[in-house]
Design goal:
With 377 residues, the protein is mostly beta strands. 0% of the residues lie in helices and 50% in strands. The protein has no helices and 28 strands.
Length: 377
């Protein structure tokens, strides 16, 4: 079933840029079960809807394989499963071809850097999982499960693909693992975690392009914490942090949210509710979304030391922005709002300032974003 009306945005996928290439954005909207494909004009930031497909109720996190050939999307209703779509190398068109079980309802999905394993984090079930991806891109029904503390919110491998890290929001820990390249098994590094201050709420992750540093956004604190990554062991060491919530926003400290109180309906206090974190391709600019104020904060990054400096906070028109994403060349930022009827395109200056340049219709509750660059037809 195809409709017309949704979104677009992006997750830099690391595919090579070329002068003759098409850039496609894929956005899931769990409220109407759609995955929407848009074409992004790299010259002016305009978005054009290409098509929409009916994926299923509560389609949410997605991941594109490193070779750009397959998009995986997770459904957050029983039976929990991941859907696989082949991506046409010329048009970006999605064709469903497989499905596989997931361990639980997953809030986060990624692949390792070689596309051999599918990784996921379950916020409600307090676990992360790994399952092998076969050569035909079929995820294995054999799922490795690893219990975490309360509310696991993300898992990714760093650029060398030897180590994996997870944001564990409810315990104020960042989990650290070795990834076995042959089996996909995870084993703890040292104690298995590093701690951050109480009520930080580690959520999403971003790695410096050189693989030396990890950045973690605090959902409840609105801060970004920087860690150095030991090249030999993978152990994390905190080296910096920066607050991304200026006083003018008048936000109180955040609280842990779950299915029982996600909107904090009985609490009228405007509270910090940070969400996504993205780093520019040159590793010099970090952007963080904040849902309560519908804004994006910018941080300068020192690529040599990993140091952070808060630059400013910019309002966006998309209400309750969940995911944000750079275009592959870093000139544009795409923003989805969970309570917005539009997705916005913003020009990004070197200091992180945002200027809205375009919009497109949004799906219901649109949030997850993946972006892909393919050869132009």
């Amino acid at each position: 079933m195809r409709k017309i009306a949704v979104i677009a945005a992006a997750v830099a996928s690391g595919l090579c840029l070329s002068a003759n290439a098409a850039t496609y954005a894929y956005v899931s909207s769990p409220g109407d079960g759609l995955i929407s494909q848009y074409r992004l004009d790299q010259d002016n930031g305009a978005l054009t809807l290409v098509e929409q497909i009916q994926a299923g109720d509560q389609v949410n996190p997605m991941a594109i394989t490193p070779d750009g050939k397959v998009l995986f999307a997770a459904l957050r209703v029983k039976p929990f499963q991941v859907l696989g779509y082949r991506i046409d190398s010329k048009t970006g068109h999605l064709t469903p071809f497989t499905q596989a079980p997931l361990a639980e309802s997953m809030a986060y999905l990624s692949t390792d850097r070689k596309g051999r394993y599918l990784l996921a984090a379950s916020y409600g079930a307090d676990l992360v999982s790994v399952q092998k991806i076969a050569k035909d891109y079929q995820p294995s029904a054999n799922v490795l499960r690893y219990k975490t503390g309360l509310h696991a919110h993300s898992i990714r491998t760093e650029p060398s693909n030897r180590f994996a890290y997870a944001g564990n929001l409810g315990t104020d820990k960042v989990l650290q693992y070795r990834l076995d390249a042959q089996t996909g098994e995870l084993s703890p590094i040292g104690s298995g975690y590093v701690s951050v201050p109480d009520k930080t709420g580690p959520r999403h992750l971003a790695f410096s392009p050189n693989g030396k540093f990890l950045y973690v956004v605090g959902e409840m604190s609105g801060t970004v914490t920087a860690f150095s990554i030991d090249h030999t062991t993978g152990a994390l060491t905190q080296i910096a942090d920066a607050n991304g919530i200026p006083a003018r926003l008048k936000l109180a400290h955040g609280e842990v949210r779950d299915a029982r109180n996600n909107d904090l309906k009985d609490d009228p206090t405007p509270r910090i509710w940070a969400a996504d974190l993205r780093i520019s391709q040159d590793g010099k600019l970090l952007l963080m979304s904040e849902r309560t104020s519908s804004s994006v904060s910018a941080f300068a990054v020192d690529p040599s030391t990993g140091g952070l400096e808060f630059l400013d906070n910019y309002p966006v028109q998309e209400q309750q922005p969940r995911n944000i994403a750079f275009s592959p060349d870093g000139r544009w930022l795409l923003v989805t709002g969970e309570k917005s009827a539009k997705v916005g395109t913003y020009a990004v200056s070197k200091d992180g300032a945002l200027t809205r340049v375009g919009e497109a219709a949004s799906g219901k509750g649109a949030l997850w974003i993946e972006i892909l660059q393919t050869p132009d037809a």
